[in-house]
Amino acid sequence: MIAFIRCGLIVVSLFLIAACASEQVLVQSEQPNVVERQKPKIESVDEIDRAVIPDIAPVNVQAVTHTSVVQSYQKALALISDPAIRAKIERRLAGLAMVESEEMQVQGETVEQQRAALNKFDSTILSYKKFLKDYPDHPDNDIVYYQLAKAYGLKGDLETSDKLLAKLLALFPDSKLAAEANYRRAEYFYSSKKYHIAERAYKQVLKQGSESKFDKNARYMLAWSLFKQSEYELALDQFTVLLDELAPTKAVYDTLTKNQKALIEDSFRAMSYGFSYQEGGDSVVAHFNKHGKKHYESLVFSSLGLLYQSKERYQDAADTYLAYIKRHPLAEDGPDVYARVIKVYELGRFPSVIIPAKEEYATRYGIHSQWHQAQSSVPETHTLRLKSYISQLASYFHTRGQKAKKAPEKQKEYFGKAIVWYKTYIEDFPKEADVAQKFHRSGDVYVLLGETHKAAAVYLSAAYEYPDYDILARSSAGYSAVVAYQTIAEASQSEADQRAKITQSMRYASEFANDARSIGVLVDASESLLKLNDYEEARKTAQSVIVRLLESGKSEYSIDQDRSSLSWQPYSTRKHRRASWVVVGHASFELADYPKAEHAYTQALRLMGKKHKLYPSLRQRVAISIYRQGELFAKNNENQKALDEYSRVLVVIPEADIKVQTQYDITAQLLILKQWPEAIKKLSAFRKTYPKHELSGGIRGKLIYAYEESGRWADAANELTVLSNDEKENQDTRRKALYQSAEYYEKDGRVDKAIDRYRTYAHGYPDPFVVNLETQNKLAELYKAKGETNKRKFWLKKIIKNDRNAGSDRSARSQYLAASASFELAEDDWKRFTRAKLTLPLGKSIKVKQKAMQKVIKKYTSVADYGVAEYSTASTHRIAEAYYRMSQDLMDSQRPKGLNALELEQYDILLEEQAYPFEETSIEVYETNVARTKDGVYDQWVKDSFSKLAIILPARYAKEEQVEGYAEVIQ
């Protein structure tokens, strides 16, 4: 290659290279049916050429006519004799000849023109040689030697050119042209493939320092010289130094010339080959570990990767990209580089590593990754790529999980990864249009994993948070949420979960009212509400189903072609209507709205056949609903209405389980309504029909009541008698029944039966004491009525004895009855006392009379001791009366016959002396009685005592004012 031929270079931006490389990978990945190829070999060193470097100091050809200038100098030369001036003119003429020669060579288009140019160079060479001959010691001969060498070079005689440059360097080692001379010589050696000599020459150029305009080109060519000698590491070092010098920062790169950028581009290419001849990406890492981090490392790695890709060495390409990523985990272009890894895996058909690579990409460069946090801004291309990868990963693992049915553990692992990527997509791209779909699909995965709570939550998001999501999909997600809540509720059986399911069911039915499933969901919700005893809401919900179905007559949906809405299709609603009526019935029943319950059950029965499993139970519910209506009427004392409802039970549902109870309650209403004959009839029939039924035990009481109210005392008493003898009854019930039977017999005039019942009670039930005592008193009275005095006295004595032995049970009543009985028995003794007459012989009859009086006094005294005012005053009066009668009987006793007047007078005096103490005592006792007026006691006996005292002591007690005084006391 001719070193000094001027050529154009294709200049491409550093960053454009990276972009093109990335684009190349994408295009290749789209090619279908990529055929596996053999790994090609890398070109040999000799097959790789450096980029052509333009002339460092091109001549600026002026659009000027040389002839006039040359002629002017030639005329001047003829006139001037000064050697120094003549030397300058001659060198200028040689230079003009050189310019003309170059111009002719550049502009020459034909062979003849090029030949003319070469001839012109010959004349130019002669001019410079003549100058050197004429002025061998001229100080500017270094320039002449350079121009002469250049002329030979442009003519094509590179060897002579090199010799002249060598002579220039030998004669003028300190010449300003030394660097260029060395550079030209190095170019000659390089083109001659004398790379080791070229290496030394380039190094000589570099010794001139950075001030030399050839230093960059020399560095570049030194690297190539080393490269051609297979000194790759040394060559890479030089290329790196060159890159550092040309573009120490990214900002500097933008200011470089096209030629400088060309050097950089070719340096990357050369470095790629150098690294490929070593350990690839590892060599790059080692190289930059030695040289330190560089801003252009990415381009070096990418260039090597692209080289491997072009040779179909896909694994090497991937390893190279990964080496860069490992070295620069937070590099801005990291996602683009990693994307190349994935693309080369695709190009190389490495399916086993593509998915893990995408996982790594999404993890390494995700929204919450360390890389992402380190960036000031993130390219949209990366965001789109990340979104695509995450979506692909979620779908991939979802599908793999569905296919791994025979490997539960593996399936769980796949589904777990699918959830991770669905969640990542949702969290990282919440505003994307397909987020709802990701929620929906993650719900499906959660269901398969058995994580129903999580499934429910994401289904809800898909169904209700994204109104632009496909209507059918939204409806499906909403329904899936309801199913999930149903599963949760069934598993936990907690009210909270039941409520949550109901809430979501209602929400679904409202949001997707035209979806046929909404009807079933509403029905289920109403049934669940019923189970939770939320009867109002259950009924309300079930009624809404009935209304919707009856009004629309539809309950299935179809989807419009544009998938924008759901529409109803005609469909039989019998099943849902029936279920809803059942809920309305049950809820109304629990709410005590029995008319509505009856109506609802009736409607439900009309919608089912007799063989339906609910048919018998609903029939019973109808009966109970009617019965409850009767109960409510009964509670509100609307007894005729209650009777009508109870009666309707037996008509509407003859087989009702509550038939017996209903018949029983009918009798109760008849009793309340005082329909005695009908009540007695029904009660008797009930007992006869259901003799062993537990309710029959209450029939007797109702019959007794009916007999009582209708005045059939004997029938009531008969029932009570049977009850009193029923050993199944408790003792107290039997006792009361016995006593009441006696009362009813007595009331019906059946005294003997009454006495028999009372007597049985008196002997059989000593307790309660007071009742037993009253019973004895009742017997005494009945015997009195019958005139059976002895039997009466028997029970009077029993009364006295029982009171005396009553202990703590003794009461005012028992004392009263005992006092009454004692007084009555004392009256018998009083009668015997009053009937005893004092006859002669008086002494004998007095003894009899006194004995009778003492007995009376004793008896009445014991009566008075009871402290019963009524009988205390009577007994006191009788005692006083006994003393008074004794005194009177003595005075009225027979006189002995044959007494003269004196003897009779004396006899009377003796009688008075005997009678006086009795009279005095009687006065005292009478006064004791009347003194009770101070205590507010003034009965007939006290009054009689006053009367007696008025007779005995008229001066004291017969005065009107005195009586009034006692009356005042009484008042």
Helix-strand blueprint:
Layout: H1 14-29, H2 66-79, H3 83-107, H4 111-134, H5 141-155, H6 158-171, H7 178-191, H8 195-206, H9 215-228, H10 232-246, H11 250-253, H12 258-276, H13 281-291, H14 297-310, H15 314-327, H16 334-347, H17 351-364, H18 370-374, H19 380-403, H20 408-428, H21 435-449, H22 452-464, H23 471-492, H24 495-511, H25 516-531, H26 535-552, E1 554-559, E2 566-570, H27 574-590, H28 594-606, H29 615-635, H30 639-652, H31 659-672, H32 676-689, H33 699-709, H34 713-724, H35 731-747, H36 751-764, H37 769-786, H38 789-804, H39 812-835, H40 842-864, H41 869-891, H42 901-930, H43 940-952, H44 954-957, H45 960-970
Antiparallel strand pairs: 1-2
Helix pairs in contact: 1-14, 1-16, 2-3, 3-4, 3-5, 4-5, 5-6, 6-7, 7-8, 8-9, 9-10, 9-12, 10-12, 12-14, 13-15, 14-15, 15-16, 16-17, 17-19, 19-20, 20-21, 21-22, 21-23, 22-23, 23-24, 24-25, 25-26, 25-27, 26-27, 27-28, 28-29, 29-30, 30-31, 31-32, 31-33, 32-33, 33-34, 34-35, 35-36, 36-37, ...
Give the structure's gist in a few sentences:
Keywords: Signal, TPR repeat. With 971 residues, the chain is mostly helical.
